[in-house]
Specification:
Order of helices and strands: EEEEE
Largest sheet: 5 strands, antiparallel
Structural class: mainly beta
Strand content: over 45%
Number of strands: 5
Distance between the termini: 18 Å
Length: 83
């Protein structure tokens, strides 16, 4: 798997609310396969995402959208530390 991520801090929140506000994006590629089910898809999957993140007093807050080259996509809303 490989990943390129770019994040740009474009604004600041008042200190009582948190820290910075960020825009970013990612490009990713990964080799996939299933040794237990050879009928599933295999090969390299390419995908990308765009996100907005905010350092809040409750922790990081993210909105993100990602899409893979096979047309599948995901939307995320996260608050707090990620695993």
């Amino acid at each position: 798997m490989g990943r390129l991520v770019y994040t740009y801090r474009f604004a600041d929140l008042p200190s009582a609310l948190g820290g910075g506000v960020y825009l970013g994006g990612s490009l990713e590629a990964g080799e996939v396969g299933n040794a237990f089910d050879p009928t599933t898809a295999s090969g390299t999957i390419y995908c990308g995402s765009v996100f907005l993140g905010v350092d809040t007093i409750l922790g990081p807050f993210y909105f993100a959208f990602g899409q893979a080259d096979d047309g599948s996509n995901s939307f995320y809303v996260m608050l707090g530390m990620h695993p």
